[in-house]
Specification:
The complex is a heterodimer of chains A (about 425) and B (about 325). Chain A is of the alpha/beta class and about 425 residues long. Chain A is built from 13 helices and 18 strands. The radius of gyration of chain A is 21 Å and the shape is globular. Classes of the chains: A alpha/beta (about 425), B alpha/beta (about 325). Chains A and B meet through helix 6 of A and helix 4 of B. The structure holds zinc ion (2 copies). The site of one zinc ion has 5 residues of chain A, from loops.
């Protein structure tokens, strides 16, 4: 990927002949879009505006701007791994126009001042929406000043990286958040069950001699959280769903009318535990890569809508820290720059999801859950992703804009690539 | 057949033919150990690094002795191992070893897969001397050598492994190797110490030792790590020994010619009764002797084995 360039939002842009996919308005047709002063001013067949810069995007798709609702930017604290700027550039390169960043930085984002710090570090390439901590320092002891952080712009709360172990505190968090109508994003993990596990529990872990993490470590916590959402009427969003049991719990909770939403990540429907054979620490993630049967269930849950979103859980780690013994490596992999291409290749090309469904998972639903404005209609802020479905490329981490290199997809052949994004009217060529 | 593997990481990656080759080679070296001068100049000029990230007296002494019997130069390193202490990483270690132009590394490490990590980054051969709870291939081979010596072969032989199978790399290497050579393997222990999915490796599971014993031709008793009780895996050591200690009464249920093995060091009275450990069916000390011969064979084969074995062992130091 080459360097992106940004154009002045004051300019007028005429996107000509792209196939516009807008599931919210049930739209899938070839249209022109006119953008003036950062806003969409016209959508229609064969529009004209003599003063606009015409960009011919025939054969390409126009999506509402993609939103990754689960990324780790490492600033403040580990700017060697990622910064708000480098993460935003990585997001732009991957076709995202908005990202929500998790608060488990050093220090943890648990107060208004720190939320403002994140916002102050934004760059024009991508909108960054902070998620605040549930508890002070994410220590799981006292609620953080959620209302105060909400006024500064948080779009949800989470102690991601850890579960909120204390059930009563989780209940209070869900209850309190009703006032702001923001979700509690839950990292579901029963730490007693996951213990010091390094991969999915089962025969393969037994064979490899790695300690296992059972599906129940995730599902037990998800079951608790939907019960608490039911009890309080709060909104719970289950992060990085990895296994069949959790899918089942979410499916039943949705049927019962409980306010639950969920995301999964490309690794949980593309890779399975077999990727751990050989002990490549790039494959160490939390929750762990699961069995092939779990992978099939995640795919079904994407199809039937039980899982609302595809996020990445973009987790940058330095090579020094990642290139160690498997069970000593930190968990997590990069996601921003590969997600869209991987999803296209594995879900759309294989007829698992339609283009519209993919756009729902990657743009519409995450924006709805976080209440981020993101639609293709007149007068709306122009946030769009232009996607070339025919572009073929190979994952080369040395070209990443992220500061880290920890991807397990190095060398993978991918079909489909974002070629430009428009962020609040800024045209970003990728 | 010629040996063509750079490393010995586990028994899973060896063919039956390769395992038999190691066992046959070990047999020649076992004879050398009976000579008045127990040295042959086969690995003269080769450098072997013993790197034990986890303490082990027996295995490191056995490897060191095997190397000295073959007249290799040995360097013993025991890096500090605490996971908290961030000193030199395994990657740094690999780079340094590579720069030192050594021939073989013998490595023990508390992380499963650590020898695989090292082997993929250096040109020298890597011998896994125990990694996490994954594999201990030379222990597996010395157990197989001992079984072959006592029982003649493996076809149809019934081997029972007793104790903490979950945390045992010895058990995994025994299972891998024995199944491949035609033995039947069962495991027996408390259900909290039998790993999930072990049946899928092709072994039968017992939770009752009295039921398991009568069928067995060989009983391999594993060492119980005493801290398992604290981790909530066992109610008490007393209860463990009531149910799983191989004692005299249980031995009465065994076949008359049963072979008793233990990888050592033993907790006498907990997993095995002293009378049984020292009894006439026990081959525990033969295992120790055979360990040296098997490790000589592995060092010889992995370092190129350029001198034909029969001639090489004729020469004396
Ligand atoms: Zn998480
Ligand atoms: Zn996360």
């Amino acid at each position: 990927m080459s360097k992106s360039t940004i154009q002045n939002p004051q300019s007028r842009i005429h996107l000509k002949g792209g196939r516009v996919i807008d599931p919210q308005n049930h739209r899938d047709e070839v249209l022109d879009i006119l953008i003036e002063e950062g806003r969409i001013t016209g959508i229609g067949a064969k529009m004209d505006n003599a003063r606009a810069e015409v960009i011919d995007i025939k054969g390409q798709y126009v999506f509402p701007g993609l939103v990754d609702m689960h990324v780790h930017l490492r600033e403040p604290g580990r700017e060697d791994e990622e910064t708000i700027a480098s993460g935003s550039r990585a997001a732009a390169a991957g076709g995202f126009t908005a990202i929500a960043c998790m608060p488990n930085t050093q220090p943890v984002i648990d107060s208004q001042g720190l939320v403002q710090f994140i916002k102050s570090r934004q760059i024009p390439e991508c909108r960054v929406y902070p998620v605040g901590a549930v508890t002070k320092g994410s220590l799981g002891e006292e609620l953080a000043e959620i209302g105060d952080m909400y006024q500064s712009g948080i779009v949800g709360i989470s102690d991601d990286g850890k579960p909120v172990t204390n059930s009563n505190l989780m209940r209070r968090a869900l209850d309190y958040c009703r006032m702001f109508d923001i979700p509690v994003i839950s990292h579901c993990e029963d730490k007693f069950l996951s213990a010091d596990g390094a991969m999915n529990e089962g025969a393969l872990a037994t064979k490899l001699g790695l300690r296992g993490i059972p599906n129940a470590a995730e599902a037990a916590m998800a079951a608790r959280d939907v019960m608490l959402a039911d009890l309080t009427g709060g909104r719970v969003h289950i992060a990085h769903v990895s296994c069949a049991e959790t899918v089942d719990i979410i499916r039943r909770a949705k049927r019962a009318g409980i306010k639950v939403t969920a995301e999964t990540c490309p690794q949980y429907f593309i890779l399975s535990q077999e990727a751990v054979i050989g002990y490549d620490s790039m494959m160490r993630v939390n929750p762990p890569l699961r069995s092939k049967a779990d992978v099939m269930t995640i795919i079904d849950a994407l199809k039937d809508g039980t899982i609302d979103c595809i996020a990445t859980d973009h987790a940058p780690h330095s090579s020094e820290e990642k290139e160690v013994e498997f069970d000593q490596a930190p968990c997590g992999m990069l996601g921003l720059e590969t997600s869209l291409g991987l999803c296209w290749t594995h879900l759309v090309e294989r007829n698992i999801l339609t283009v519209s469904q993919l756009v729902e998972k990657m743009a519409v639903n995450p924006a709805r859950i976080l209440k981020i404005q993101n639609s293709i209609e007149p007068e709306a802020q122009a946030n769009l992703t232009i996607f070339d479905p025919l572009s073929e490329w190979e994952v080369d981490p040395s070209k990443f804009r992220s500061k880290s290199r920890n991807t397990p997809f190095k060398g993978c052949k991918i079909k489909g690539k974002a070629v430009m994004t428009i962020v609040d009217g800024h045209l970003i060529k990728i | 057949m010629k040996w063509n593997k750079k490393d010995l990481l586990d028994l899973e990656s060896l063919s039956a033919e390769e395992m038999n080759m190691i066992l046959d080679t070990a047999k020649s070296f076992r004879e050398v150990l009976n000579r008045p001068i127990k040295k042959v100049p086969i690995l003269r000029g080769k450098t072997i690094v013993n790197m034990f990230f986890e303490p082990s007296t027996r295995t490191s002494a056995s490897f060191d002795m095997a190397a000295k019997r073959l007249m290799a130069d040995t360097v013993n390193i025991s890096p500090k191992t605490s996971a908290v202490q961030k000193g030199e990483t395994l990657l740094d270690t690999a780079r340094n070893l590579e720069a030192m132009k050594i021939d073989l590394v013998v490595m023990r490490h508390s992380s499963s897969g650590a020898p695989h990590f090292l082997a993929s980054r250096i040109k020298a051969g890597v011998i896994n001397a125990g990694d996490g709870q994954h594999a201990h291939p030379t222990q597996g081979l010395l157990d197989m050598f001992t079984i072959k010596e006592k029982r003649g072969g493996f076809e149809g032989l019934k081997v029972l492994i007793v104790g903490d199978v979950t945390h045992s790399r010895v058990a995994r290497s025994n299972i891998n190797g024995l199944l491949k050579l035609g033995a039947q393997v069962s495991v027996c222990g408390p259900s909290t110490l039998i790993p999930i999915g072990i049946e899928q490796l092709g072994v039968k599971v017992y939770y009752n030792l009295d039921e398991a014993i009568p069928q067995a031709d060989v009983i391999n008793v594993l060492r119980l790590q005493l801290e398992r009780q604290k981790k909530g895996l066992l109610p008490s050591l007393r209860e463990y020994s009531l149910h799983f200690c191989l004692d005299k009464e249980r031995m009465a249920k065994a076949k008359g010619d049963v072979t008793i093995m233990h990888p050592g060091p033993m907790n006498r009275g907990i997993e095995i009764d002293p009378d049984v450990a020292d009894g006439e069916r026990s081959v525990i000390l033969d295992q120790v002797t055979n360990g040296v011969a098997v490790r000589m064979a592995v060092l010889y084969l992995l370092s190129g084995g350029d001198a034909p074995l029969a001639e090489a062992i004729k020469k004396e130091a």
